[in-house]
Amino acid sequence: MRISTFITFTLLVIMPPASAWAQNAEVKASRPAITRIAFLGDSITAGVGVKDKAKERYATVATRLLAGTQSAITEINLGQSGRALCQQNASYPESVLKQNPDAVVIQWGVNDQYWGFSIAEFTARYNALVAALRNAKPQMPIVVMTLIADFRRAENQDVWIGEANIALQEIAARYRCHLADTHRSFDHRKELYADSIHPNTAGAEVMAKTIVAALDALPRSAENAAISFDQGTEVRFLQNVFLPKREGAKPDWVDVMGISSKGMNIESKIPIAIRTAPIYPKGSYRIVIHDKNDAVVDTVTSTSDFSRTHSFVFDPKGHDGPFRVEIAPESQPHSPPGIK
């Protein structure tokens, strides 16, 4: 999967927690004070699929959960059935800001895929929307939601959706947005759908809880870094290249967290060929892969030359994850067991 070329910034991204390990690693933040929250999106946001829109759509449930025992929060539901983000005019961000929200949740995407818009068109429009919101209200919480699976057509839509979701994780980090990974929360479970695209009451509740968890966590940023994907044979992300060695068409989740010049953490059951971003000074390096018990799974010697990158293969080799990948100059000692 390739990310559209309009995104030229250099940053690192984190995904929402996908396992007990990720949940333990997630740093919690104080939930921002919210009195007016706007929900942007299509018929999913409007509430199609649930029995009682006024009570059960994900936006209403999320608003109720966020309010809790505190004072009420006003839900501003701007869902547009059948519409796509790419069909909005240039004044769309202004129309959202006129509602005077102090938090915004964005659900757009499934209709952009359905109506045939390209990844480049969609991500450019999405980037422009988030940039306008962030420029107008620098401190306002913005929640970027990943796209849930689409079963409306017989052909597989996961390639488009998977690529879009990687781009959305980049956008979230660029503008310090909270990331609600509803794609991961749904994990292709059809029992959460009322039909081939709209969540049912149970699905809406899952979406709502994912949004609340996102707002309880720190916003994405260059310092809060990772990527999650379940499709694709080539994933390009912030100049890192991941080539998961899949067997068949079955989705396999790959989570890469804590990406930095010192290495990364990986949660994966399948081997992955990895080429790092070009950030390493010339010299000899040692790449050491540890399993969850700090046992060494593999050690690779690598030389950074004019490309300033490293290429290696991550292979679980029957070990249990999560895995820690250390990249350090040969002259620098590696961390002893237990030191992360």
Strand content: 15-25%
Number of helices: 10
What percent of residues adopt helix (DSSP H or I)? 25-40%
CATH architecture of the largest domain: 3-Layer(aba) Sandwich
What can you tell me about this protein's structure?
- Helix content is 27%, strand content 23%.
- It is of the alpha/beta class and 340 residues long.
- It folds into two domains: 197 residues, Rossmann fold, CATH 3.40.50.1110; 100 residues, Sandwich (Immunoglobulin-like), CATH 2.60.40.
- The two termini are 31 Å apart.
- It has a six-stranded antiparallel β-sheet. Strands 2-1-3-4-5 form a five-stranded parallel β-sheet, sandwiched between helices. A four-stranded antiparallel β-sheet has the order 7-8-11-14.
- α8 links the parallel β4 and β5.
- It contains ten helices and 15 strands.
- The chain is globular, with a radius of gyration of 20 Å.
What brief labels describe this structure?
Rossmann fold, 10 helices, Immunoglobulin-like, 15 strands, single chain, disordered N terminus, alpha/beta, 5-stranded parallel β-sheet, 2 domains, 340 residues
Outline:
With 340 residues, the chain is an alpha/beta fold. Helix content is 27%, strand content 23%.
